[in-house]
Amino acid sequence: MLDLQELDARAALLRHQRSHLPELAEIEQLQTTRTEADNQARDARMVVDDLTEEQAKIDADVEQARTRRTRDQDRVDQGAISNPKDLQRMLSELESLHRRITTLEDQELDVMQQVENAQKELDSLAAQVVAADERLAALSASRDDKTGAIDRELDAVAKERAPIVAGLPADLIALYDRLCELKGGVGAAPLRARQCGGCQLSLDAAELATIKAAADDEVIRCEECQRILVRTAESGL
Questions:
Q1: Cα 48–51–52 angle (5° rounding)?
Q2: Residue 199 belongs to what H/E stretch?
Q3: Which CATH class is domain 2-166?
Q4: Which residues contact 127 (CB under 8 A, 6 or more apart)?
Q5: Strand pairing partners for 75?
Q6: Which residues lie closer than 8 Å to 94 by C-beta, 6 or more apart?
Q7: Helices (H) then strands (E): counts for the chain
Q8: Would you say 5 and 186 are in contact if contact means Cβ atoms under 8 Å apart?
Q9: CATH 1.10.287.1490 occupies which residues in the chain?
Q10: Rounded to the nearest 5°, which phi and psi values hold at 49?
């Protein structure tokens, strides 16, 4: 029975180790960080696209204004406009075009700077996502390796446990399993130096006398914690 308890304690420790691998906590935290960076990258990409579209529109407006200015300036330079009023109006329009082109070029430079800054932000966030993916891949591989090793140990414990269970009465195993569930995984404990190995309390003389008088195959239980007490050479009986 103590061999069974020892194996079950070993299995419980292995399962605890498997569920508390350091990689698991880092993976969870990194997945959250990656999701945040990915969401920010998506927003940054939208900003870059919007600014790029705005820049293209300003570029088109500048080109259109320049084309018109060149055409009108050529007409003036070639003397194609002879009417003084028309010429004056054309010169005025050329001045307006020049101011508009200057304004558009300033806007274009400003938007170009915004695009550059937004692209840097996007590149930084994209790099964070890539780095997170690489780290997640490494952590997942390490987790899988450790989990696999623990599972192999658990399989070995299960194989060692099976013949022990087969050699014990079914009703005793049922009692032991129920106690394990109720008592934090410890259903059986040794009686050593007149003390229960489960609750660590000493037994009084009357209890010890009862246990000493019991048959070797009788199931003894601690009066205090109700665990199965296994008599040993060190029980002090």
A1: 80
A2: none
A3: mainly alpha
A4: none
A5: none
A6: 69, 72, 73, 76
A7: 5, 4
A8: yes
A9: 2-166
A10: -65, -45
- For residue 123, the one-letter residue type is D
Write out pLDDT tens, residues 57-114.
999 999 999 999 999 899 888 988 888 898 899 889 999 999 999 999 999 999 999 9
Cβ-contact 26, 145 below 8 angstroms: no
What one-character DSSP code corresponds to residue 190? Answer: E
Judged against a pLDDT cut of 80, whether residue 237 lies above it is answered with no
Whole-number pLDDT of residue 164? 95
Cβ–Cβ under 8 Å, residues 201 and 195: yes
Q: Which helix (H) or strand (E) holds 85?
A: helix 84-166
Tokens standing for residue 135: 């780290």
The tens digit of pLDDT for each residue in 13-70 reads 999 999 999 999 999 999 999 999 999 999 999 999 999 999 999 999 999 999 999 9
